[in-house]
Each structure stands twice: as C-alpha cells, then as structure tokens.
Amino acid sequence: MEENPKERKMSVILRKKCIVKAMNEHLSPERHHKLTLSNLDLLSGRFPVTYLYLYYHSRSDRGSINISNNVFESLKTSLAKTLSYYYPFAGRIVEDPQTSQTLIICDNNGALLVEAVANIPLIHLDFYNLNQTLEGILVSCLNPDEFPFPVQVQVTCYTCGGVSITFTFDHALGDATAFGNFLSSWSQLARDMPLSCIPDLDLGRSLPPRLPPTYHPYFNHVFVKCTLEDIRNIPKTGILLKRLYFVDALSINHLQTLASADSNKRTKIEAFSAYVWKIMATSIDESHANCKMGWLVDGRGRLSHSSMSNYIGNVLSVAIEEASIVEIKQGSISAIANNVHRAISKVTNEAHFQDLIDWIECHKPGLMLPRFVLGREGPALVISSGRRFPVAELDFGFGSPVLGTVSSTIENSGVGYMNQRPSARGDGSWVISAILWPQLAAALESDSVLQPLCASHLQKS
C-alpha cells in the first residue's frame, strides 16, 4: 500500500554547513575589537532566541519555481554583507577570566549557516505544535552548552519547493528590535536594496550610571543577580508546551472594545493581556492565592538621548503586576486592562530605565534577571508585543513569508511566555507564540479567541 504523505514521519537531513564571515572587515574598526556588554545587556540572561520564517514556493509567468535552488548560496553571500555592518554578530561571546565581565570579541569568527532537507512538503508541518516542529527543523550539529556562534541559521528545503529559515541568536547580542533590524537589513542586502537602518553599535553601551548610582528599593524586590548555572538549573515548573496560535482581527477588536468599556481607550495588547490574565487565573491550582503577569518594555524612545531606534543591543525592562486569583476571576476585562495599563505605565519612562542601569551597576559583574523568571515566585506569564517586528516584509529575494514567529530552544522555563506578531496575511490578525503549562494551554484552547495555528491560517503566495 502506498504511503500517505500526510502520515509520513518527518525527517530532516543535514546537507551542508559553513561558517560565514563578514565580507568587509574594514567596516569593523580596531577600536571595537572587544565590546563590553552594557548594563542593560546583562539583563538578557544569555537565552537563545529563535525566529522561524516559512516560505512557500514562488510563482512567475513561467509557472512554479522551486525556490530551494540557489537559496543557500544567495543567503550565504548576503549574510556576509550583513555581518560587515553588524560585526558583533560575527564575533564570540566570552567571559573575561580576570574581571568576570562578559565580552563580545569582534574577531570575525563568523556565523553558522546550515542547509538541510526535509522529506515532507512544508504544508504538512505541525504549525501548532512547536515542540515537534522545532525539534525537526533545528538540526543539532553543535553542543548547545558551547554555542560558539552567537548567530546560527538553518535553511530547510521541503519536497514542495518551500523553505523554512530559522535564525537563532544569543540574547546578549540584542533584543527583538535589534534582531528585527538585523533581519530587515539582511533581506534588503539580499535584494540589492539600500539599508533602511544603519546600525548603531555604540549609543546604548555609552549610557552611563549616575555617580553615585542610585535606585528605588523596588528594584531589589524585582531583579536579582544570577549566573548561567542558575538559568540552566531553573526548577522543573511544567512550563514545557510550545504552541502557535492564530487570533483573527475581529477577536482582537472585540477584546479592545471590552477593555475600553469605561471610556479609557486601551491598546490591543493591553486588552489581550487582560483577557489572557483572566483565563490564566482559571488554570492555577488552589495552592496559590496570587499570580503575576509581566510585559517586556522597550526603552528606546524613553531615554532622553539622540534617537536610539537603530541601536543594536538590549534596551529592555519588564513591567510586573501581582494580583489575587479571586480578584482576576471576578474582575471585568476593562478593570483588569486598567491594572495592566497602570503596571506598564510605571516602566515606560526615563526614570525607570536610569534606576535600572544604576541597579545593575551596583550588582556587577554577572548576569541579572527579573526574579520571577527563575521560577521561584509562583505562577507567572510574560507577554511581549512584536507589532513592529518585520514579518511579511522579510523577503530575501524569493517572495514574502507566509509565517514569521519567535520561540526558544530552552528546555525548561520558570514563567510562561506569549509573544505576539502580526500575521503575514496583513489583515490585522495575529500569530501568538507561546510557552505554557498544560492547564493554561487547555484553558486557552477551550475558548475561541486563540485558535491552534493551521495551514489555512497562512497567507498563500
């Protein structure tokens, strides 16, 4: 009996790998041979961050074209050009044995580029179950504890001619804005276009602490100094499920209407957060009286310096709010959204970021994290908005993607995460990448707002 291709077990075979170095080393001046991580870089935790993009085969007047032909060589050439502008991404991240400071050695060690082939058409990927999908399309070719290349890229070609590209970054290099700028620049250079962003590799590293450093006592309760061992040894919390969801524009707009019912206009992400928090409260067992939510906040635009929009590094903090589970269960979406708004507003200002820079200065050397991220403060969920992150526009010369999202290869998480991205459909819908505990996943899926992502949700070429 002939095998049904839909039932075929996916296998991925590594075909080639190479180390890509910056093409024009003269763009990396000697004075940048070593870059010390900024204070805000130290808050990154050194987590790996993976972006996943899917591309169907393109079409032209000549009909169907298999875009896997020459894709690898084209990406290799344009990556070398991109690394010339983003030279720390071709470096090595090490700890100085004398000072214990983390450094980026800008020696053009290179980025890792891998090509693989899958035995299924791209449309047969399990889009919802990221645990399974990422395991299949991220070939394990290096010891993850060594992670000698802070940028690793895998191009996987499918039997239909489609392609997936995964980009894995060491978080010490930057945050979502930095990585979005890197990927946008790469796609522009791949199409021989001028760069819309000339990367600034200095400004954020020159944000000084005050003399003497001063900060509100609040920061001692929210943040903690830690080591890579602390991060690797996060207690088993059961937050293991990696999922992709689709949220249509009608649902988003409806939630915003509910959240703004008391005449206070709330943003879509505030409304969505209120909804998720209410669902989350139903998923927590009776041994907990309270739960927390956090929101990642970009400091670009909050600091009174020249424009930091092109700064490549980390400029993130986190807003955190704790509430009783009973209060959240009984509260209206608008009341909860008001709490979300107040929590985020406390962080979106220069005073907060200056205090954070000073707090880190007083606790160096080492890494820093929000305490609850280490999984020691009860149930918590972090929400990140990526409405400005490039999705549909990430064209490397073979068409726009049908999906662009983010995840992580971490095996255990101390908190749940939900990352919002605009869908490639361009109709106001979202794709949500989530790392969840089973009870929360079940509670979210019992309602109709978050739909398990499937092929019908993807924009077709």
UniProtKB/TrEMBL annotation:
| Record keywords, A-Z | Acyltransferase, Transferase
Which Pfam families does this entry report, sorted A to Z? Answer: Transferase (PF02458)
InterPro entries for the chain = CAT-like_dom_sf, Plant_Fungal_Acyltransferase
- GO MF annotations for this entry? acyltransferase activity, transferring groups other than amino-acyl groups
Q: Hey, which family's this protein in?
A: Belongs to the plant acyltransferase family.
This protein is called what? Coniferyl alcohol acyltransferase
Species source reads Gossypium hirsutum
